[in-house]
Amino acid sequence: MTPVLRQQELDAQAAEAPTYSIVIPLYNEAENVEPLYRELKPVLEHLGAPYEVIFVDDGSQDGTYEVLLALHREDPTVHLVRLSRNFGQTAALAAGFDFAHGAIIIAMDGDLHHDPQDIPRLLETLQQGYDIVSGWRKDRPDDFLTRRLPSRIANWIMARLSGVPLRDFGSTFKAYRREIIKNIRLYGELHRFIPALASLVGARIAEIPVRARPRYRGQSKYGLSRTIRVLLDFITIKFLLSYMTRPLHFFGPVGLLALASGVLLGGYLTLKKFLYGISLLQRHGPLLLLSMLLIITGVQLISIGLIGEIIMRTYYESQRKPIYTIREIRSRREARASPTDSKGA
Ligand code: UDP
Ligand code: MG
Predict the structure, then answer these.
(1) Atom of ligand 1 nearest to the CA of 111
(2) What is the reported pTM?
(3) Residue 111 CB less than 6 A away from ligand 1
(4) How far apart, in whole angstroms, are the C-alpha atoms of residue 100 and residue 123?
(5) pLDDT digits (tens, 9 = 90+) for 282-321
(6) Which atom of ligand 1 sits closest to the CA of residue 221?
(7) DSSP assignment of 94-114
């Protein structure tokens, strides 16, 4: 295929691409899909630009897919992605993001937890020059002890550690610019951390209050255990944020410190043995042990750091992934190549 044809094809694709993609993951939400769709549709029509709705069925067993099929048949803007089993909300979202064609991608829950009426406000804020606008569930209807309090604590810690001043990391109600979400997909398993990961690629992030309604019907898929898992995940994220491209800087200092103190201690003990002729095993057993332990730990930590460096290089180079992301390039390079264009540049 010639490059020209390829370009035409890309242009045609771009012409067809909708402005907005709404991505909704669903796991056993048969009773909620239809009411959600009925609420969503007029809001989207009102936006005045082409849109697509992507429902991701995350392996539901309650007939959710059949309801979706009916919607898909009657409405060409409805697209269905059906996963082969239940992969979890993050994977379902990722599947939807991959399939989405829109310039702006909006994610929301499928249980009417989020109010479609808030979508125009998310988009308005996005137009003010942000890459991500996150919905902050200001007045959550959830139980205080098992849901709201743990999430408060988790949010506070996450904001502190990630340096992204969000009040509600758990909210899935968000609008993204396409470039951002397509960039992040490669890093993340964890949709909650998209803003933290996005800050890594320099995204501008805003947060606006949204209405949080109780889920319409059916059961929440999560309880208290999720908060603990989220906090554990955060350690990974924190590490990735700060040390992704330089793991040796994380393990190295501690390793060196351990190694150096082990060697010093060992040296001191050896000196004592030769100067005073004492038996180290009898007089300094614990210290000798400590010195050996420090040396071994130090060598191992440094080695782990080095292995990390190798893995990291493989990661970036196998994907030819640069270690930076560019927001914009202004250059006269092309203008120079074709002099006719250079006037306006
Ligand atoms: N969900 C999913 N896969 C799962 C669990 C949940 O796609 O394994 C969907 C679910 O159908 C809903 C959204 O993710 O649309 C949020 O789930 P839920 O309402 O249970 O979470 P909560 O609002 O209680 O945090
Ligand atoms: Mg919900």
Answers:
(1) 15
(2) 0.75
(3) yes
(4) 17
(5) 777 888 899 999 999 999 999 999 999 998 888 878 877 7
(6) 20
(7) HHHHHH---SEEEE--SSS-B
